[in-house]
């Protein structure tokens, strides 16, 4: 069974930099999985931040960037702001009609 | 602008059925694949189902196969999710989501999301 792994929680100071990761229980994440990232604040719908590994969606500030780091996908927030405090989910496309979300990372900015 | 508005959620007894709708506007609905994604209370996102732009390909997560059916009416710009044999584990907010242009993003990644509709199956 495919399990996409994320840190359950992370904290960052205002103005700081944080990197969240997205891995696989078996194997490495590569661009072939078209990793994507979503931001969700409580009670709100998800918002697409990043698609196809490292492309920012329309309107997403450039303090959000993404890449492959080692064997994981990674989302980096540079210069974190208070309203970046959210849940962040990654998703991998496993191919042939299967998309799998990670468990999400709750980011605290304090 | 793109708008996706889900409806049809509510409380349904175990074993019951419900049909969700997602009304789309602001884009050429018939040109884009669509997903349903759900989120149980206090839990993470779970992909549920996908339908290709023309309805010819449909995919489901294992836990709903044989119980859920995704469909679309391109003449009415509406996406559906027929849910049968519901259990308490199906309790969630259900979101519909449009995908990016498949020429740009071959993986049918979610682009725009609706606000969701809550389905409750009491235990």
Task: Tell me about this structure.
Chain A has 110 residues and is mostly beta strands. Chain A has no helices and 11 strands. In chain A, strand 5 and strand 6 form a beta hairpin. With 123 residues, chain B is mainly β. Chain B contains no helices and 11 strands. Chain B has strands at residues 3-7, 10-11, 18-25, 34-39, 45-51, 58-60, 68-73, 78-83, 92-99, 110-113, 117-120. Chain B is globular. The model of chain B has no long low-confidence stretch (mean pLDDT 97). Classes of the chains: A mainly beta (110), B mainly beta (123).
Structure at a glance:
The complex is a heterodimer of chains A (110) and B (123). Chain A is mainly beta and 110 residues long.
The proportion of residues forming helix of chain B, as a percent range, comes to under 10%
Distance between the termini of chain B: 40 Å
Q: What's the main sheet of chain B like?
A: 7 strands, mixed
* Shape, per Cα inertia axes of chain B: globular
The radius of gyration of chain B is: 14 Å
Compute the separation of the termini of chain A in Å. 36 Å
Strand content of chain A: over 45%
- Percent range of helical residues of chain A: under 10%
Mean pLDDT of chain A: 97
The helix/strand order of chain B is EEEEEEEEEEE
Describe the SSE topology:
The complex is a heterodimer of chains A (110) and B (123).
Chain A: E1 4-5, E2 9-12, E3 17-24, E4 36-40, E5 47-51, E6 55-56, E7 64-69, E8 72-78, E9 86-93, E10 99-101, E11 105-109
Parallel strand pairs in A: 2-11
Antiparallel strand pairs in A: 1-3, 3-8, 4-5, 4-9, 5-6, 7-8, 9-10, 9-11
Chain B: E1 3-7, E2 10-11, E3 18-25, E4 34-39, E5 45-51, E6 58-60, E7 68-73, E8 78-83, E9 92-99, E10 110-113, E11 117-120
Parallel strand pairs in B: 2-11
Antiparallel strand pairs in B: 1-3, 3-8, 4-5, 4-9, 5-6, 7-8, 9-10, 9-11
